[in-house]
Amino acid sequence: MEGLQGSFSLVGMWHSMNWTARGVVIVLSFMSVWSLTIAIERIWRFYKARRESLEVALGVTPLLKHHKLEEAINFASDKKYRHSHLARVLTAGLTEFHYESSQQLPEGFDIVESGKRAIERETLMTTAEMKKGLGNLATISTTAPFIGLFGTVVGIIHAFQGMALSGSGGLGAVSSGIAEALATTAFGLFVAIPAVWLYNYFLNKIERFQVEMSNSSSQLIDYFIKNEARARVR
User: Fold this and answer.
1) C-alpha distances in Å from residue 176, one per residue of 47, 148, 152
2) 136-159: per-residue pLDDT in tens?
């Protein structure tokens, strides 16, 4: 009985696995660590982005209300806000608008549209940076169950080969081998399920950040339009 219990333990299963099944377990272990590393890095990155963006919004808003454009650019472009998605979008738009306003431009050139395009470019680049690592999570979540299933198929073949060599039949003769084989599928699901959850969680976070960038961009464009109208009146 003790020997049977030992064969169903994790250590017992590992020792009775062939090297193909062990390779599957090693690959799944690597994928698990990989997804955990991505998750920790993205959680920290998004936490910094949210905290810094709140500070930027609180700092830039009063400066723009008093039309302190250069001070707003210097504030938003400070290195301590390098993780802020709002800082990047605001800096791109304000810098473009400030630069174009100080140049002798041909008649008919739309400064507001130029600033809008700069904001759109920076929004796309920021969104792409925020999605860093999510493709790997998607790959892990979709492939881990199949890798585990491959280990199961190989393990079951190994179990029946052992039964054929020993000449014994019945469920008792193959139960240990089948259990070892199914363990790889269970491990594959153990790796895939958190990866799927994390992938969807981070996508929802990015969608919220995109809404924040869209709102800030809209408010900034309104500011450009009002400034241009004010300049024409003068």
Assistant:
1) 46, 17, 13
2) 999 999 999 999 898 888 878 777
Residue 129 resides in a domain? yes
- Whether pLDDT at 40 is above 70: yes
Looking at residue 44, its amino acid is: W
Domain hosting 13: range is 7-227
- The per-residue pLDDT for 183 is 82
What distance in Å separates the CA atoms of residue 189 and residue 224, rounded to the nearest whole number? Answer: 52
0.70 surpassed by pTM: yes
Structural domains in the chain (count) = 1
Gap between the Cα atoms of 127 and 212, Å rounded = 12
